[in-house]
Amino acid sequence: MTSTADARRTVLVVDDTPDNLSLMSGLLKDTYRVRVANGGERALAIARSDPQPDLILLDVMMPVMDGYEVCRQLKADPGSKDIPVVFLTARTDQVDEQFGLELGAVDYITKPISPPIVIARVRNHLQLKQANDVLRNHNAFLEEEVERRTRDVRAIRDAAIVAMASLAETRDNETGNHIRRTQHYVGALAKAMAALPKYQDVLEPETVDLLYRSAALHDIGKVGIPDSILLKPGRLTEEEFAVMKSHTVVGFEALKSAERSLHNTDMSFLRYAKEIALTHHERWDGTGYPQGLAGEAIPLSGRIMTVADVYDALISERVYKPAFPHEVALQEIAGGRGTQFDPDVVDAFLTVADQMREISRSFAD
After folding, report:
1. Tens of pLDDT along 138-174?
2. What is the CATH number assigned to the segment(s) 4-140?
3. What is the pLDDT of residue 146?
4. How far apart are CA 77 and CA 52, in angstroms?
5. For the whole model, what pTM was predicted?
6. Over 70: is that where the pLDDT of 263 sits?
7. 228, 256, 250, 231: which is closest to 169 by C-alpha?
8. Domain parsing of the chain, residue ranges
9. Of 100-114, 199-213, 248-262, 294-308, where does the model show the most confidence?
10. Among residues 79, 122, 130, 171, which is most buried (max CB within 10 A)?
11. How many Cβ atoms sit within 10 Å of the Cβ of residue 117?
12. Could you give the CA distance from residue 104 to residue 262 in angstroms, rounded to a whole number?
């Protein structure tokens, strides 16, 4: 008996002989919707039209374009490559059969045909295609769902960064534009360094993006510094500066606590945020704070952030200093190469110096 599902399935029969087309149409028409093509070009046009056939029965020996070439083009086209092709041919040589299957056909039936065998094979291949379609659609749904959830996680991550950075802004007499500038400095520096063979495997695009976003939290620990020190309109005493330096550890511990609360959730951006918060005042020669780390013992994220932060401090006005011109800031950064700063980061900075100046102008206070 003909099922409703079978009636909706379309079988395309391709043969240059009218009698063969009539034979196959008569055999299949009571069970399936049958379309016919008497040549390769016509077959390709039908296969690429909407609705597409669910199965193609394809003769090999045809003028102009033989069945092998039709199959080759069908499988090369993303729009038709999933339509199962069954060769239906008078060629009985094993080499021909092997060649047809290697082109991507799912079956090879030789003439003269056995009607029960043809009907059974058509039914089996259509059932298999239906199962494959269901699986393919399910996989596509899963991929879309993973992509949607990934977007949600990234949105939550970005919202968390903005919220925490905004909190730091409310306590600091530095403006929010300082945060934006340093973010973009870090992004530009990381991209420049990613082009170097030494850092290609370390600074992948996803890592560069995370560094850019995490840079906004470099001074999050300042929320734990008393206003009398944080907002003091002048230079700090030695004792006050010792308290101010603790913002690195305060920020690190706050972010570490946040990371702990997330349990097994993938929030890898907090790894870089922690590194940056803790180490962006370390120096290449080991005389920085809070741990006195030296050289490559300082995480790369912290070494990049240090240069970005110092450059912005140099070109910005403070109660204890005027804003330095861009050229003077460049000289200061270059002068700290190998002492205050990682030489590789300084070299990268100098290659994107013009970009740094444009960033500072775009986000001027």
Report:
1. 887 788 888 887 776 666 666 666 666 666 666 655 5
2. 3.40.50.2300
3. 81
4. 13
5. 0.60
6. no
7. 231
8. 4-140, 172-362
9. 294-308
10. 122
11. 10
12. 48
Rounded Cα distance between 164 and 154, Å, is 15
Tokens of 52: 């597409």
Given the structure tokens 């309109």, which residue do they identify?
233
The pLDDT of residue 6 = 47
C-alpha 165/C-alpha 20 separation (Å) is 75
CATH superfamily of 172-362: Hypothetical protein af1432 (1.10.3210.10)
4-140 and 172-362 share one CATH topology?
no
Walk across the sheet containing 107-110 and list its strands: 33-37, 10-14, 55-58, 85-89, 107-110
Q: What are phi and psi of 35, to 5 degrees?
A: -120, 150
Least reliable range by pLDDT among 177-186, 226-235, 248-257, 325-334: 226-235
Round to whole Å and give the CA distance between 241 and 290: 12
